[in-house]
Amino acid sequence: MTPLAIRAYTTTSALGRGLQAHADALSAPRGGLAPNDFSVAPLDCWIGRVAGVEDEPLPPELAEWDCRNNRLAWIALRQDGFAEAMRAARERYGASRVAVLLGTSTASIGATEEGYRRLDHGRMPADLHRPVLHTPHSLASFVAAAFALEGPCLTVATACSSSAKVFANAERMIRLGLVDAAIVGGTDTLCDSVLFGFNSLELVSPEPCRPFDAARSGISIGEAAGFAILERVEAAMDAPLLIGYGEASDAHHMSTPHPEGLGAELALNDALARAGIAPDDVDYINLHGTASQKNDEVEAALVARTFPASTRASSTKGFTGHTLGAAGILEAAITLLSMRDGRVPANLGAETPDPLCGPQMAWRPEAADIRIALSNSFGFGGNNACLAFARAGRHA
Asked: Where is the Ketosynthase family 3 (KS3) domain (predicted)?
């Protein structure tokens, strides 16, 4: 594919607000997980919660959209100069030539949960009787409305791969001439449906998650928001690049990945082929690495059999928790930071490596010249995406 420029990007998670907060935490290394203080009923687990979201309502002109998910999105949109970059893209191309393509798995379901807890004679309470909230499309509609964007507006909800797959949607729309730029990313916030739902599947760990540890005991759920602007390279010559992507679906099981990682391997090979690179060209892989038993063993084996020992790989979910539909954009941003700063993040939390892990795994932070990197997002039910990035000026 013809590479696309990433003119601007930003993210917020339990590590803090904005790119520098994430760079500092990854460098330390310092995680953001803490004991669960969110759910309406006790649940013994650790979560990656963004501080202060409850205390920052949307401005009055956007009050119709006010809920935790859109508040977190609004926080992220207004840092790292991202809102200014969005307005500049609208001025440069026109409101109808900028797409809004966002991923989420829960959208504003937290507001719907609250409404059902406070039903007024069987109806939504008056303060939550806002139809724009109780829909999977709430996030994308909110962002488009807040920035007066009139181009294609799309929500991708493919579980944990959601905000990675939007990069593929953007490439197709720009290549086909439907738009000139795309706002991609996503937001997912903590809610009881997610916490108790994953716990009912016996996937939630009572301790901080330990990706790729031999004694790992499950995932830690987090929340995050992140966004990026994609344009043709000539519009932003000095920007990092999206050089490839791959997508595949296992069609194996409702929740468990294919035991041989066939869908994940298809997505990985598709990304390499579309980028025109070989495994030996990849300097770093940000792994999906949720700390669940099946995901980690499948991904560890895939990396070990595909890449040389010189390729470095790690999961950053030990820092942030698994941010579900926002994991793709959060980890894409972390990957871009790793390229910018020349630093491979640690695989935080792991003490005893799973025997399936190969020499590619970076258990501690490492300095590295990262020219080309991958970011894996393997979703619940076997929906897989892999993104390939290159540092500005380093991909021919």
From this structure: 1-391
Question: What span, in angstroms and rounded, lies between the C-alpha atoms of 44 and 263?
Answer: 33
Angle at 169 between CA 163 and CA 170, to 5 degrees: 95
Which residue out of 322, 357, 386, 395 is catalytically annotated? 322
Q: Does residue 394 surpass a pLDDT of 70?
A: no
Q: Which of 160, 191, 209, 386 is catalytic?
A: 160
Both structure tokens of 378: 């393997």
What span, in angstroms and rounded, lies between the C-alpha atoms of 7 and 237? 9
- The pLDDT score that the predictor gives to residue 396 is 44
322 catalytic per annotation: yes
Would you say 249 and 186 are in contact if contact means Cβ atoms under 8 Å apart?
no
288 is catalytic: yes
Count: domains in the chain: 1
Say if 206 falls within a structural domain: yes
Q: Which domain holds residue 351?
A: 4-390
Q: What is the pLDDT of residues 100-130, one digit of tens each?
A: 999 999 999 999 999 999 999 999 999 999 9
Task: Grade residue 339 by pLDDT with cuts at 50, 70 and 90.
Answer: very high
Give the count of alpha carbons within 13 A of 79, CB side only: 19
> Token pair 């903590």 is at which residue?
190
pLDDT tens column, 254-277 = 666 667 768 899 999 999 999 999
